[in-house]
Write a structure and sequence with these properties.
7 helices
């Protein structure tokens, strides 16, 4: 697949999204516009931490990388963590594992949100937001909001502070807000003609600034070169493995041929011995008949 230029990238691409969030004087403003459209409200004090990594508790444990980790301080002193994850994975296995992946993200965030000895009341509320070009649940909804609940009494209040929002860029069911529909369409196809409202025009100005930055362009080239290097390295290793397999196959074939030859030689030796034995038996019979003493 040919390399796409930086100009061709969309906001669902990890590199452009990450570059937007980390760009000085743009990152926080971009995230504010994003959250304002998703939730339909303005956001106050935000702490933006791009590419937050939660390592495993040991070397053999799975870690997690959160694309955009945000904390919002609210008047009730209840901090809220937002994890925003644009996700372009479209294979069936990834979609089927999505609920488990999100569960893991929640667990990782929770495990680092409460200090030893702190009350559980201090646990931060967590909202994981997945933005996807494919329908994760095949219900054609733009918004899927997931909360824990009691199966026997669905109307019973049960607030554990955990929420997940799946945003499907093409969904139409459930009368999604028009501004949200426009935002998701723009994120999937980040072009000026899709910046159809004031918020998106503001975002597009930010996108244009980031895409035209020489340092961002250079970083994109470096990443592509690293990926190309890894691909070449992978091809070399694949070729080396193929050559090793070919050599092993050749050696096995030679061993089989040698074994076959040895077996044929052994069969010839047995045949020759049998022929010699038959000849000796005949000679012995002749001697018996010609001997006056009837040799036994």
């Amino acid at each position: 697949m040919p390399k796409r230029t930086l100009e061709e990238l969309n906001l669902l691409d990890d590199f452009l999204f990450g570059s937007m969030v980390t760009y000085p004087e743009i990152g926080e403003a971009f995230i504010r516009e994003l959250l304002k459209t998703i939730f339909g409200r303005k956001f106050g004090s935000l702490t933006v931490i791009p590419q937050k990594v939660y390592y495993g508790s040991d070397t053999d444990k799975h870690g997690a990388r959160l694309d955009v980790y945000l904390e919002e301080d609210l008047p009730d002193n209840k901090a809220v963590v937002y994890d925003v994850e644009p996700d372009k994975k479209t294979d069936t296995e990834s979609l089927e594992a999505l609920p488990l992946r999100v569960r893991f993200y929640h667990a990782k965030i929770d495990s680092r949100s409460l200090r030893s000895g702190e009350s559980y009341h201090s646990l931060k509320r967590v909202c994981v937001i997945m933005i996807m070009p494919d329908d994760p649940f095949q219900e054609n909804r733009m918004v899927y909001t997931i909360r824990n609940m009691c199966e026997e009494v669905p109307s019973m209040p049960y607030e554990d502070g955990a929420r997940t929002i799946f945003l499907y860029t093409k969904g139409t069911e459930g009368n999604p807000p028009e501004k949200l529909r426009q935002l998701l369409h723009y994120m999937e196809d980040t072009k000026e003609e899709n910046a159809v409202n004031e918020t998106l025009l503001h975002i597009h100005d930010m996108v244009r600034t980031v895409k035209q930055d020489e340092e961002v362009s250079l970083e994109y080239m470096k990443i592509f070169e690293r990926e190309e290097m890894l691909i070449r390295q992978g091809r070399r290793e694949e070729q080396a493995n193929t050559e090793r397999e070919r050599q092993r196959a050749d050696e096995a074939e030679k061993k089989a041929a040698n074994a076959q030859k040895e077996a044929e030689n052994a069969q010839k030796i047995v045949f020759d011995l049998e022929q010699e034995l038959t000849h000796l038996k005949k000679e012995l019979e002749k001697l018996k008949k010609s001997s006056p003493n009837n040799i036994e």
